[in-house]
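Incident log, entry 3
Record: Pyridoxamine 5'-phosphate oxidase family protein (167 residues)
Problem: checksum mismatch between cached and fresh output.
Input:
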Amino acid sequence: MTTGQIDERFGHPTATAPSWSAVESLLDAAELYWLTTVRADGRPHVTPLVGVWADGRFAFCTGAGEQKHVNLQHSPLVAVTTGTNGWRSGTDVVVEGVAERVTGRERLLPLAAAWESKYGEDWAWDADDDGFTDGDGSRPWVYVVPPTKVIVFGKDPHAQTTYRPAR
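Fresh output:
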């Protein structure tokens, strides 16, 4: 990612942009994220979910019958949000991008390990070439979201910083 650019319209004059490594640490440490997808009729769909930040991308999974999966078949454009709901403390992060399905056991196993490392045995997955697998027949598809834009909202002092990938 490039260096963050503070939007002076939305922040305190003393605010400084967090480093990209600090932003990645926030994304990595978050336990809950909100995923926004777009329905075929254009209405947004927002849902909380777990995920991992791995190799500079957000990763999540979804079952084939879930609304977010249906939406991704129509449009892969997503926004992922995490942060706190307080006004005076914490940092909120929005990752915008295009969700890409991950296939291939060799690509999926490291993500499965990341889920288990972060969330424990309740999220222990195996993988085959199509997605995650477990003992009860669940077969979620796995997606990654390489960021096209990341917006960070600091709250003490207030600031809005935008990051874009280097071109």
